[in-house]
Amino acid sequence: xxxxxxxxxxxxxxxxxxxxxxxxxxxxxxxxxxxxxxxxxxxxxxxxxxxxxxxxxxxxxxxxxxxxxxx
Length: 71
What we know:
Structural class: mainly alpha
Number of strands: 0
Shape: globular
Strand content: under 5%
Largest sheet: none
């Protein structure tokens, strides 16, 4: 994991599927768990989803709040 990976979780949107357009950091836990069971996609997206799954599974989503862009 690189520090910029955490920033990408709060800025990149899911590019496809049921939650297309939702920030990776805002994906529901059950969806991330489904990827964990079925397999994460290849490449950077898969790495970020796996990281987000670990963050969610360990109850650490609040750590991403300071990284979110200000509105």
